[in-house]
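User: Show me sequence and structure for the first protein, then do the same for the second.

Assistant: Starting with the first protein.
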Amino acid sequence: MTEVIGRRERKKAQTRRALADAALALFLERGYDQVGVKEVADAADVSVTTLFKYFPSKEALVFDQDEDIEAALVLAVHGRPPAHTIVDALREHMLRDSADGGPSEQFIRLIESTPALRDYARSMWMRHETALARAIAEESGAPADDVACAALARFALASRELILAHPHRRRAAEEIFARLERGWRTE
């Protein structure tokens, strides 16, 4: 069944998208630190007050899909094919996120060259640690507060930054998640 979205929700989504698109275009063109929130609001034809109703900070303008990240992470664990381990599912999710259809090289350079964005990206991903750990625990039959599940969630989330920074992303993901799968023993 298709959910009908009302006019008000469509307008809100359009405004949010216009703000995010305007911000990204301006940031990529001139650099994050050279663009003010008023310029972003003007480019999207809204007030600064409206901008802050949709985005709590200037950094948040760059990461407009934060809400979808947690759902996708949890789905990667719960919706994995029967033959895939949880680590397999997380590796594939991180590869999809960082390769095809993932952030462009220009976007990655913007993030990496701007300390405020780099820090925000890291904290944004790590905000989903509890939900991911809970999903891993559910799928593993472990208690909700299982420290091993929390560790796997933390390492998987932190791996994204390493994968994106590596010149050979697929190889980096394979190495990181192979180590997570078998543990740290080198024998």
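Switching to the second protein now.
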Amino acid sequence: MTHDLTVRPLKETDASDWRRLWTAYLDFYETSVSEEVYATSFARLLSGNTGEYRGLFAEMSGRPVGLAHFLYHRSMWTVEDTCYLMDLFCDEDVRGRGVARALIEGVHARAKADGVPTTY
């Protein structure tokens, strides 16, 4: 992993960088979403409401280079919630430098800190 790599929660001031990364993610899957979906999705990621997606950003030297979206939900196998890592993306120019691994580990750590023992 690169020493100048940090993972942190998504914040309101990340809107334009999140949109850039999310658009690149959608482009990879050869799809797009409406402006309403962009706005609604970003607001949901920041809401902190139970049952809504959450987001993490990976930064290298202060530049956002990756994102992860995850969701806590009920499970029929445990009393505790479980964590679903929905989306994972990093810029092409930083692939192979530990960004995706750091985001995955960040989601696991965040879930455990929130009392959610399982992530898939």
